[in-house]
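haha ok so turns out i had the wrong file open the whole time. this is the CORRECT one, sorry everyone. sequence first:
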Amino acid sequence: MAPILWIVFAVIVLFGVIAAFILYTQKGKHEPDYRTFFNLGLVFFIIGLGSQNSAMWIIGLVFFIVGLTNKDKWKKQKKWKQLSDKERRIKFILIGVLTLLVILGAVVVLSKRGV
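then structure:
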């Protein structure tokens, strides 16, 4: 396997260990955000169908169903006006980075197709 794949794998494992440690050290029971399950399921399902990857769309379908069956437990999202200045700044940066990644991804795909 290429070295970059090992690096990506190591980073994912590291983030998983950090997340598990944070959840383990938190006091009280952690309640999952089922709206996130719904959104992830929708994205995985669409990408799985588009890439003809059966494992991805099946996982997406499972997440989608779990999120939808627990719709009554969805957490309320704050409106933009209700966010603190720090939360707004973080959200704005995340939106900017994700937009940049989508644009760069489109450029890479289109350049490989010769468009």
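Residues 33-75 form one domain.
again sry for the mixup
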